[in-house]
Amino acid sequence: MITVDEARALLLDLVQTGEIEEVPLAQASTRVLASDVAATRDQPPFAASSMDGYAIKAAEVEQHAMFKLIGEAAAGHGFDGTVGAGQAVRIFTGAPIPQGADFVVIQEDVDRKGDLITISDDPGSKDNIRPAGVDFRVGDTISAPRPLRPEDVALMASMNIPRVPVRRKPVIALISTGDELVMPGEVPGPDQIIASNTFGLKALFERHGAHVRVLPIARDTVASLETTFGLAQGADLVVTIGGASVGDHDLVAQTTQQLGMERSFYKVRMRPGKPLMAGRLAGAAMVGLPGNPVSAMVCGYVFILPMLRKMLGQSEEADALVTATLSHDIAQNGPRQHYMRARVEGGKISVFDNQDSSLLSVLSKSNALAVRASDDPARSAGETLHYLPL
Ligand SMILES: Nc1nc2c(c(=O)[nH]1)N[C@H]1C(S)=C(S)[C@@H](COP(=O)(O)OP(=O)(O)OC[C@H]3O[C@@H](n4cnc5c(N)ncnc54)[C@H](O)[C@@H]3O)O[C@H]1N2
Ligand code: MOO
Question: In this protein, which residues make up the domain named MoaB/Mog (predicted)?
Answer without folding.
Answer: 173-310
